[in-house]
Amino acid sequence: xINESLSRPFKLECGVPQGSCLGPLLFTLYTSRLFxxxxxxLPMIHCYADDSQVYISFSPNNRAEQLAVxxxxxxxxxxxxxxxxxxxxxxxxxxxxxxxIGTSQQLEKLDNISxxxxxxxxxxxPIARNTGSWFDSRLSMATHxxxxxxxxxxYIYNIEPLPGGVHVSMIP
Length: 172
Hints:
The protein is α+β, with helices and mostly antiparallel strands. It contains four helices and six strands; from the N terminus they run αββααββββα. A hairpin with a 2-residue loop joins strand 3 and strand 4 (120-122). The longest helix is centred in the middle third of the chain and has 24 residues, at 63-86.
């Protein structure tokens, strides 16, 4: 419905109308199998709406452990892809990214790590966004602070002058 106009009725084969009261519950029921798949391969998962992040920690000193982590991630993503295909969903390889977090010394010990997703080799990103915050490989939060400040300055600069032509903004 837009204003007071209703669209023509039509048969809905799958999915849930956006904004419906049952949407979050039905989405959770629909994707609950996904959590089982991930927990089979990896110890931790975090989801917010339709965004999912998986976490795993490993020792940068152990080459075998690095390879095992990559293998577990790839197997997990492969099984997620199969589940999604069977449930009329698509894994967007272009939006798949991973971030390796550690101290400078830990990050220097790592081999050139990449994860195979479908036909693509995904390499670590230096910065990743997670539910509105920007994280870098050292968790410095410098990128997040810079982006928030840039956004704030943009909006302050674009404030319309008050009636009478008065425009006040303080930038340190």
